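To: structure subgroup
Subject: Chain for Friday's discussion

All,

I'm putting the inputs and outputs inline so they're searchable in the archive.
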Amino acid sequence: MTWGVGRPVTPDALCAKGEGIFYTDQPLVVVDQAIIDFLKQAALSVPRRRARLCAHPDAGADQHDMLIVSHRDTYVAPHRHLKKSETFLVLEGLADVVLFDEQGGVTETIAMGPVGSGRPFFYRMPKGQFHSLMIDSELLVFVESTKGPFVPQETENASWAPEPDRASDGRAYLAALASASQSR
C-alpha cells in the first residue's frame, strides 16, 4: 500500500458560512501556515475579531474540530456547555482561561501558551463548567474540539456577565476581573 501526502487546504477552497466561519468540502483536511495566515487576516476584518476553519463537514457532524484565530479584542463571554466537554490546544499566542462558579466568582485562572512557552498548552473542559478566555497576545491560534452536532441551546451564557454581542462591555468586565485578581 502506498501512502500519499494530503494536500493542504488552500484559502480559495474555503467557503464562508458566516462571519469568520469557513468550511471546506475536502474530506481530508490538512492545514499549513497559509490557512493560519488567512484566518489571521479574516479575524482582523470582522467585528467579532475571530475566524475559524471548521474541519468537520457541517454543523450536524458527530465531531467538531476547529482551527480558530482570535484577536485580543475578541470577547469570549463566560459560558458553559451543558451536555458536552471541549478540548483546547494552543498553537500560537498567550491567553488566560478563566473558570467561574455558578454566581460568577472566579475559581481559577490558567495561563496558557504553546508548547515551549512554559505554560500549559492543552485542556479538556468538563461539561457544565463556566469558562471564558482573556487573550494576552495580539492573536491567539488554537484548536478546539467538541462533540457534535452543534445545538445553540446546549450552550448557556452566564447571566452575570455581558452578553456575547456586547464586546466592549465584556472586555471591560474581564479586564476588571483580571485587575482585581492581580491586586490580591
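Points worth raising on Friday:
DSSP finds two helices and twelve strands in the chain.
The chain has one domain: 11-182.

D.
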